[in-house]
Amino acid sequence: MKSITKTPIVILNFKTYLESSGENALRLAQACENVAKETGINIAVAPQHMDLYRIAQEVDIPVFAQHLDPITPGGHTGSALLECALDAGVAGTLINHSEKRMILADIDEMVQRTAQNDLVSVVCTNNINTSTAVTSLGPDFVAVEPPELIGSGIPVSQAEPEVVEGTVAAVQKINPGVKVLCGAGISTGDDMKAALDLGSVGVLLASGIILAENPEKALLDLVSKI
Ligand code: G3P
After folding, report:
1. Could you tell me which of 92, 23, 87, 95 has the C-alpha nearest to residue 55?
2. Cα–Cα distance, 136 to 186 (Å, whole number)
3. What is the mean pLDDT of residues 195-206?
4. Which of 5, 7, 67, 225 sits at a 20 to 30 Å CA gap from 41?
5. Active-site residue among 67, 97, 160, 165?
């Protein structure tokens, strides 16, 4: 658990880009592993469910699910079961991503069930208020991402630094054990450095690396100023 949550941390959310699906997902995860080994920075990947098992088998860096459903084993066709993700080798899961929002009671259930199963929980939020609300649930990480900046190429750490700083301050007040990440529009070493300077312990990002001409090179640049 310790090495999985080592900070600073970079979590690359593969979303559903073709560039990070199937064979491409494996290649991208291997690029992340190369950079993690070369730099010593904790880099985790969050591939699609269909790619989780293979990637968890093939790479030696933390692998996260993008979402898990608040269900118990049984009749829930099409849902993502925590126990199955665990068996596939995941280290943790994103919860409540802006592209997969959940109601508060379900976020609470998933934070509790991840903790019971030694999985790392990363609860995504869209602003300071929701960060404040979910911190009381006690997740490992809160990742604040203003939705309007997601996929925009405009880094949150520069466009809306007050959201990151405000989240860090609010979380600190409620539960200093919860670590803050930020995301949206992050792609360069300067963006990452700005994120850390604002008090976050890492970034959750996607398009800036996945769509880069050379993702491994882009990752090396991302962590170059830490
Ligand atoms: O989960 C990461 C995310 O929503 C940010 O996406 O493409 O702006 O880095 P992106």
Report:
1. 23
2. 27
3. 98
4. 67
5. 97
d(C-alpha 99, C-alpha 192), whole Å: 22
Lining residues, ligand 1, CB within 6 Å: 13, 97, 145, 150-151, 183-186, 204-208
State whether residue 74 is helix, strand or coil. coil
For residues 118-132, b (16+ Cβ closer than 10 Å) or e, as one string? ebbbbbbbbebebbb
pLDDT above 80 (res 29): yes
DSSP state of 102: -
pLDDT at 3: 81
The residues near 78 (Cβ < 8 Å, ≥ 6 apart) are none
Q: Residue 80: what residue type? A: A
State which fold the 2-222 domain adopts.
Answer: TIM Barrel (3.20.20)
Tokens of 154: 């405009």
Considering the entire predicted model, what is its pTM?
0.98
162, 172, 174: which is closest to 201 by C-alpha? 172
What is the structure's pLDDT at 140? 98
Question: What are the residue ranges spanned by the domains of the chain?
Answer: 2-222
Residue labelled with tokens 């993690």: 36
User: DSSP character for 199?
Assistant: T
206 C-alpha vs ligand 1 centroid, how far in Å? 4
